[in-house]
Request: fold
Amino acid sequence: MLCAGADGSIRAGDLKNEEETVNKKKWLLSAVLAAALGWGAAAQAQTTLTIATVNNPDMIVMQKYSKKFEEQSGIKLKWLVLEENVLRQRVTTDISTKGGQFDIITIGMYETPIWGKNGWLVPLQDTPASYDLNDVLESVRNGLSYDGKLYSLPFYAESTMMFYRTDLFKAAGLTMPEHPTWDDVATLASKITNKSKQIYGICLRGQPGWGENMGIAGLLGNTFGGQLFDADWHSGYNSPAWKKAIAFYVDLMHKDGPPGAAGNGFNENLALMSSGHCGMWVDATVAAGILYDPKRSQVADKVGFANAPIESWNKGNGWLWAWALAVPTSSTHTAEAKKFIEWATSKDYIDMVGKTDGWVTAPPGTRASTYANPEYQKAAPFAKITLGLIESADVVHGTKDPKPYTGITFATIPEMQAIGNFAGQQIAAALTGKESVDQALDSAADNANRVLKQAGYIK
Amino acid sequence: MRQRLRTKLQFTAIGWFAALVMAFPIFWMTLAAFKTEIDAVASPPLLFFTPTLENFAEMQERIDYIAHFWNSVAVAFGATALALLLAIPAAYVMAFYPGRRTQGILLWMLSTKFMPAVGVLVPIYLLLRDAHLLDTRTGLIVITLFGNLPIVVWMLYSFFKEVPREILEAARVDGAGALQQIVRLVLPLALPGVASTALLSIIMSWNESFWCINVTEVNAATLALAIASFSNPEGFFWAKLSAASVAAVAPMLVLGWCTQRQLVRGLTFGAVK
Reply:
């Protein structure tokens, strides 16, 4: 403050004092601003995201590399890693009760449209230009959308393919067609099976569950001309097409499958195939990277790849699944969570994993740029087939007759898990001989119709 | 004499057989922990192999074992201490001053264990959410405490019943109050039983996994959740899961080994007079 002297003049000392006062104020203001900014920065640095994810190999790699994201962004990450069924139940409990425990969740193509419809997820289509959303395969984007809005970004995606032992085929003078039919599979399997040497012509899932044996049963049902539900939502399990498909499956597994097939899921068949006990295996494309890796497979140099079998209908022979990252609306760190998801599903991330861990371990099935990369093509000879299968997988159409649901081996309705699990148990019972195929499928259809009627689908 | 020796040998053989059957899963799990993933899933199973420590190294890389361990310790000992604090007075009253409804209350307490935990998952989740106790040690201790309380009360009740009432009557004549009777007479006389109850409660709390998986994520996660994080339906995991399981059960095995005499003495307390 300027002080005038008694004569009205302004004294030098007063000016000095005034300058000091102004300087002090500036210092104080600067200090407060600095403190505020510093506190703000500290607060930003202390932002912690809790991520719920599945314990799949690609996710474990993501967890390992996420330290780089922490260093770059100053955001701290905490992880809950669980097996997919346990995680699904855990996350569902939290999100449906608005518990707000997670900032990022790992969900699949089944949950995303349902939870998006329920308003439980933050829409994610407003990604920055550098993310290049159009590079993400269209079929995968569609599977992770509801009502035109994208609700999760894919970390990796998969379809279904045929794996076979080239050495066994060569020794038996056999050739695997590029597009085999299930009849071809039966013929080839019968010529490869050598039970005395524990070589089984075909390995398929038998373990009951909507995500286990119903995956392969759904493909058989589709390719034999069936569907899960008809246009009026009545179950297709007891249709002639499904009965023919499951009778074929049970017969094939009895003749040329491994013993105890009803207990075999993905892992058990992976163990059998990679240790040389299966002549053919039809399962998730994601297994290709494991079977081709000499550290994890004893048949790495003897494994061939082909399209998943078709039969009377040439579509619906490959499921489409993606593990994707989403932000629940109950999260209080939406912006930071989006930032992490964009990092983890970016081209740069795939590039980093490919260059550091080897291209065969790069997350597959999500981006066109991955498949256009010569290094990936060289490291993963199954890349072309995988891309073709994922691109051609159609969640809207794909069955011989029109269907009212979205999905290939499952319908994206909340009741599907209960319906699929029950049907899976019935088909496993048919496989073990506890029930006939007709009994099993009639029972599965009755249950499905009852559930759908209670839920109001069947009028 | 020969007949007695033969009977003894037969019982010894049966005892060893039962012990081996029960210990076999632990033995096989320990072997798998030192195998590679390919060796762990080999068919036929491998008994002889080149041991490796890579599973333990990966376990240490992926989880914070020490943090999970301390959470397990806090939950196991915290829940047990609180359970004893509540159960000792309750069991004392029911054992020495039984009313018309004592048996009914005891049965009702035990009946809460008949229901599968998942039946009350959503209400308890909502309660914890509203109390801001999700993913906290306090929340998990409270849930574990109430889970174990019926068993703890039942066990203490049966141990206290073995204490002669005349001793307590004499103490009351000498002017001892309820607290003095508990602290100076009941607890010292039933100490083996109380110790085995505490040990059993600690083991149950340590192994509790349902609530840990469902109400904790990171901050209060115990070793049970750490083990669960190694299960995987897409890829090999048996060796890593076994390594995590060995690391999780090792502290309890050591505790059980060190206290087996007290545990057996407590569990047979009053059985032989």
Summary: Chain B is about 75% helix and 0% strand.
